[in-house]
Amino acid sequence: MAGFAIYESPFGPVRMDYEGDVLLRLRTVEPTKERGEPTELTKKVFSQLQEYFSGQRQTFDFPYELRGTEFQKKVWAALETIPYGQTRSYREIAQAVGNPKTVRAVGAANGKNPMWIVVPCHRVVGTNGTLTGYAGGIDMKRRLLELEQQVLKRNGESS
């Protein structure tokens, strides 16, 4: 059964598209009265997101599937290796997928990431460390990175 559910988060409404017991897409959306059909899966996802937002969770353990081109999947797999609270440049991701000349293609794949926060595209920055391009906007990217830094400091960890 395919469906969706929408929950409210500190970053606005979050839409979860699922098929059976697998999440296919997680993203922020414009405010709407629609709520879709919550399931045990979407409740678990939202609970884990709330834990992330409150600084109690750094990784996620619900079932999800990333659908895209082979190149996009390589990029998303590289994003999943970026540790909590750290960043990597688009160039570093291009090198990680085996082709340092694909920086722009990495940026495009990053922008198509279907799994907001879970596949941490917010941790990718410009080569000089500047915050660049993010589907949710630079302010949201900054807030997510600051949240992770605050949690690491509170826990006495370094990034």
What does it look like?
By secondary structure, the chain is α+β, with helices and mostly antiparallel strands. The chain folds into 2 domains: 2-53; 70-154, Orthogonal Bundle (Arc Repressor Mutant, subunit A), CATH 1.10.10. It has 5 helices and 5 strands, in the order E-E-E-H-H-E-H-H-E-H. The chain has helices at residues 40-53, 70-79, 90-96, 103-111, 138-154; strands at 2-9, 12-19, 22-28, 88-89, 124-125. The strands form 2 sheets. It has a 3-stranded antiparallel beta sheet with strand order 1-2-3, covered by helices on one side. The longest helix is centred in the C-terminal third of the chain and has 17 residues, at 138-154. The radius of gyration is 16 Å and the shape is globular.
What characteristics describe this protein?
single chain, 159 residues, alpha+beta, Arc Repressor Mutant, subunit A, 2 domains, three-stranded antiparallel β-sheet, two-stranded parallel sheet
Can you describe this structure in just a few lines?
The chain is an alpha+beta fold and 159 residues long. 36% of the residues lie in helices and 17% in strands.
SSE map:
Elements (H helix, E strand, L loop, with lengths): L1 E8 L2 E8 L2 E7 L11 H14 L16 H10 L8 E2 H7 L6 H9 L12 E2 L12 H17 L5
Helix pairs in contact: 3-4
Q: What's the CATH architecture name of the largest domain?
A: Orthogonal Bundle
Major sheet: arrangement of strands: 1-2-3
Q: From the alpha carbons, calculate the radius of gyration and give it in angstroms.
A: 16 Å
The CATH superfamily of the largest domain appears as Winged helix-like DNA-binding domain superfamily/Winged helix DNA-binding domain
**CATH T-level topology of the largest domain:** Arc Repressor Mutant, subunit A
Uncertain residue ranges: none
CATH class division of the largest domain: Mainly Alpha
How many H/I helical runs? 5
